[in-house]
Amino acid sequence: MPKVTYITPSGESVVVEDAIGNLMEIALEYDIEGIEGACSGCCSCATCHIKVHTDWLEKTGKATESEMDLIDLESGTDERSRLSCQVEMTDALDGLVVQVAPF
Ligand code: FES
Fold this sequence. Notes:
The chain is of the alpha+beta class and about 100 residues long. It has a single domain, classed as Ubiquitin-like (UB roll) (Roll), CATH 3.10.20. The protein has three helices and five strands; from the N terminus they run ββαβααββ. It has helices at about 25-30, 55-60, 65-70, and strands at about 5, 15, 50, 80-85, 95-100. Strands 2-1-5-3-4 form a five-stranded mixed sheet. The longest helix is centred in the N-terminal third of the chain and has 7 residues, at about 25-30. It is globular, with a radius of gyration of 12 Å. The N and C termini lie far apart (about 30 Å). It binds FE2/S2 (inorganic) cluster. FE2/S2 (inorganic) cluster binds near residues 38, 41, 45, 46 and 83.
């Protein structure tokens, strides 16, 4: 199972060893601080804002146009910003590290 590490707004690192689903769903299941997921993953709220660790940008890919429309409304965003509901965990992402907003 792929593993993902969330770095919370408090600076805590939370490792999920058997990450299945998208990064918002996983965060809610494991009660990760800072991820609300208000729209349940419909890409319409941005309460699931994360930043992907630089080492993983190529594998996760960039935000889609609809993600960017929401991300642009947030503060503290940059090229690493994604909506966690739009990033599906796969074996190729085993070891992924993301930071949870606010940053
Ligand atoms: S949960 Fe609403 S945009 Fe991700």
